[in-house]
Amino acid sequence: MGAVTLQNIVKRFGSFTAVHPMSLEIPEGSFVSLLGPSGCGKTTTLRMIAGLLDPSEGDIQINGRRINDVPIHKRNLGLVFQNYALFPHRTIAENVAFGLKFRGVDKAERDERVKKALDLVQLPDVGDRYPKQLSGGQQQRIALARAIVIEPDVLLLDEPLSALDANLREDMRVELKRIQHQIGITTVFVTHDQAEALALSDRIVVMSNGRVEQVGAPEDVYTTPATEFVARFLGASNILPSTCTDADGATVALENSAFGKLVLPRERAPHVSGPGAVKLAVRAEKLAIVAPGAAGAPGEDEVSVPGVIETVDYQGLAARYFVRIGNEQLQAINMIDGSPFAEGAAVDVRLRPRDCTILAEAA
Amino acid sequence: MTVEAREARQPYLLLSPAMVAVTLLLLVPLAFIVVYSFWLRTATGADQAGFFLDNWREALSDAFYRDILLNTLKIAAITTLVCAIMGYPAAYVIARSRGNKAVLLLLLMLPFWISYIIRTMSWINILGASGAINSALMWLGITDAPIQMLYNEASVILGLVHFLLPFMILNIYVSLDGIDTTLEDAACSLGATRWRTFLEVTLPLSLPGLAAGGLLAFVLGAGTYITPIVLGGPTDAMFANLVFEAIITQLNWPLGSALSLMLLAVLGALVLLYNHFLGMGQLMKGLG
Questions:
Q1: Is A95 inside any structural domain?
Q2: Is the pLDDT confidence value at B43 over 90?
């Protein structure tokens, strides 16, 4: 088991910088996700840790030891790829035993450990089969077994669930979490899927254009996005340009065109130092759409403004509304009971200021 | 007609021009050859129709034919081996090159733009008594008289390798190009050195291409008759030269037919063996 430390690593391909100076501490036994859209540098970072790419600058350490110059076959890392990468000409048992051959493990122990690994991924009886004879989900479990049977210091997962069908993906997600907990291995997980990152991780590293946007626990990253990118990438958010009018120790007052005056508790706007332009992030699910003058007047801590529904995106359990308030179009995701509001309907939009966040990013 | 019946008919419709061509130009002439092989050439020089086994008896029992057949297979085997050894690294470089793959493949195709006979004859200008190598050696004073490099078995093999190497490279290339490189990454991450990764993953997965290239090189090599004529000596005749000799020089169609069917049977058996173990699909991939 091992902790991973990245110290100002940079990766350039010619004149293109894929990863800008990046530092990260991955504590032993933790599950860290690198989350971002394609081209954000997450896979490049993983490949540098794996030894498949050399960093242009900076150091990579595992357990405090610099491994920049350690070739990949000596790094003792478990690698799982999106396309499984099982050896098609070898049986499942031979695939899983592959890494043990290079570690001087004798035949008897090899068989024993292969059996244990197959038990762990709950596929004990497929040892004699070939990869092609297994389903995608089963192949990915074997790939996982092959990576962990060598007892690597760190497990590196490169979009391991992306090639699977939606339902299977969720099953595998649960399975992956169970296995990671059971063996307690340090895991770096690359994904573009926010749901996977939120469900699996101890910490999420949100990346964009080769830069780290935010690092934090899933709840922190979700509820308190630091940047507009994070706010938009995780879930659906409205970004409202606002003007801070007053800030003291307990509250921050601001104004914008959609809601007028809002007073936020200080912890929702920790970065604001004084009056000026700011960006307010409002999660789509925090905007409540109600019929005008609906029963239950807005609570004391709630603001309510009139709006008009412009588009309805019906999703069964919920609906996504695009609602116009003055000059702004905002999106709101509400659970629906019965039928959703119709397009063109006049509604009230309610919001609790304490559900908003002021981004750390300058406006 | 139902939709199903129309759909079932469509492949045959599309194939029919090719099937007509194959039937008229290959199967019918082949049937003639089979019939001819049982005719008899009489002392007057006329062919006597009938069912005689004399040609087959001669073709199968005469040690002269047997030795030349064995020698032909030996030359084809050596050529195939040399092509494999020379072709694999070249195919690997092409398959693993990033930017200039198209250029390298074009260079590989380039020799096909020149007639095979011209390419074969070009060796006379290189290896001949007044060819490039001998001229250079004599100019440098390393030797006084030209060294005999042409008209022996080695020059025949050289000509065949020159002819067949692109086929071998293409087949191995197709196989290598189809290997997912993450398999190699996975092997390395599990502790295999680059060399072990090659032996354990890359080489086994490219064997179908190697086998397809090998089969093509062997069959084309064993069936060649121009190369021994241009680059071989009087004793370097290959089996196809015997067929040529029988049919064109001696006008003995019945014997020539039997001999050509003999070679066809040997090479056909090889193709069937290949098909049994690897299937024709791989060969088609390499040709396409």
A1: yes
A2: no
Search chain B and give the residue with CA nearest A150: B190
pLDDT at position B285: 58
Q: Residue B143: is it exposed, middle or buried by C-beta count within 10 angstroms (0-12/13-18/19+)?
A: exposed
User: Is A312 strand, coil or helix?
Assistant: strand
Residue A71 sits in the same domain as residue A149: yes
**Residues of B in Cβ contact (< 8 Å) with A44:** none
CATH number for A261: 2.40.50.140
Q: How confident is the model at residue A32 (pLDDT cuts 50, 70, 90)?
A: very high
Q: How confident is the model at residue A292 (pLDDT cuts 50, 70, 90)?
A: confident
Query: A143 by DSSP, 3-state: which?
Result: helix
Domain boundary among A200, A228, A256: A228
- A272 and A297 housed in the same domain: yes
User: Has residue A363 been placed in a domain?
Assistant: no
Same domain, A11 and A123: yes
Distance from CA of B209 to the nearest CA of A (A): 15
Residues of B in contact with A81 (CB under 8 A): 182, 185-186
Assess whether A261 and A148 both reside in one domain. Answer: no
Q: What is the mean pLDDT of chain A?
A: 92
Domain range for A215: 4-228
- State mean pLDDT over B218-224: 95
- Say if A235 falls within a structural domain: no
Q: Are residues A245 and A219 in the same domain?
A: no
CA–CA distance, A282 with A244 (Å, rounded to integer): 16
- Do the Cβ atoms of A83 and B204 come within 8 Å? no
Q: What is the mean pLDDT of residues A233-240?
A: 92
Nearest to B204 among A73, A81, A89 (CB): A89
B288 pLDDT tier (thresholds 50, 70, 90): very low
Do the chains contact at B191 and A50, CB–CB below 8 Å?
no
Cα-trace Rg, chain A: 25
3-state secondary structure of A10: strand
Number of domains in chain A: 2
| Same domain, residue pair A46 and A120 | yes
Per-residue pLDDT tens for A80-120?
Answer: 999 999 999 999 999 999 999 999 999 999 999 999 999 99
From residue A93, alpha-carbon distances to A5, A102, A203, A206, B197 in Å are 34, 15, 34, 37, 18
Antiparallel, parallel or unpaired: β A154-158 and A77-80? parallel
Structural domains in chain B, sorted by start:
59-287 (1.10.3720.10)
Nearest residue in chain A measured CA to CA from B180:
A85
State pLDDT tens for residues B188-202.
Answer: 999 999 999 999 999
- The secondary structure of residue B27, as a DSSP letter, is I
Q: Which residues of B touch A54 (CB under 8 A)?
A: none
Instruction: Please state the ipTM of this predicted complex.
Output: 0.85
From A228, A252, A285, give the residue that closes a domain: A228
Is residue A336 within 8 A of residue A318, CB to CB? The reply is yes
Which one of B182, B183, B189 has the shortest CB-CB distance to A72? B189
| pLDDT for the residue numbered A300 | 67
A&B contacts, CB < 8 Å: 62
pLDDT given for residue B66 in this prediction: 93
How would you classify the pairing of strands A4-13 and A57-62?
A: antiparallel
Partner residue opposite B189 with nearest CB, options A50, A87, A88: A50
Q: Could you tell me which chain A residue has the CA closest to the CA of B185?
A: A52
**Is A99–B191 a contact, with Cβ atoms under 8 angstroms apart?**
yes
Is A207 part of a structural domain of the chain? yes
Residues A222 and A245 reside in one and the same domain: no
pLDDT tens digits, residue range A57-72? 999 999 999 999 999 9
The DSSP 8-state label assigned to residue A340 in this structure reads P
Say if the Cβ atoms of A73 and B189 lie within 8 Å: yes
Per the CB < 8 Å rule, is A87 touching B182? no
Percent of chain B at pLDDT exceeding 90: 72
Same domain, A57 and A89: yes
Nearest to A85 among B186, B196, B204 (CB): B186
The one-letter code for the residue type at A258 is A
- What is the Cα Rg of chain B in Å? 24
Domain with residue A140: its CATH number is: 3.40.50.300
